[in-house]
Write a structure and sequence with these properties.
The chain has six helices and no strands. The protein is an all-alpha fold. α2 (18-25) packs across α3 (29-37). 22% of the residues are buried.
């Protein structure tokens, strides 16, 4: 699964609109939409803010691996 697919999935699971996520991370909903569709890829600092806002690890968003289904709360434990 690609970054865009994980982002869209996590965002929809949290029921956060693109515009709302954009406000949380300091960008626009249109940019989040481009990330969702795979048209753009965020810089690492923005990706980290997105992960924090969605309550998932950065690893979950950017790569396949063992942390695919772990949220930040579980990861911190």
């Amino acid at each position: 699964m690609a970054f865009s697919e994980r982002l869209a999935y996590a965002r929809k699971q949290k029921k956060i609109k693109q515009a709302d996520l954009g406000k949380l991370v300091g960008t626009s909903g249109d940019i989040i939409g481009k990330y969702d569709r795979g048209e753009n890829t965020p810089a690492i600092d923005i990706a980290a803010k997105i992960a924090e806002a969605l309550g998932v690890t950065l690893d979950y968003l950017v790569k396949d691996g063992e942390y695919e289904h772990i949220d930040n709360t579980t990861f911190k434990r």
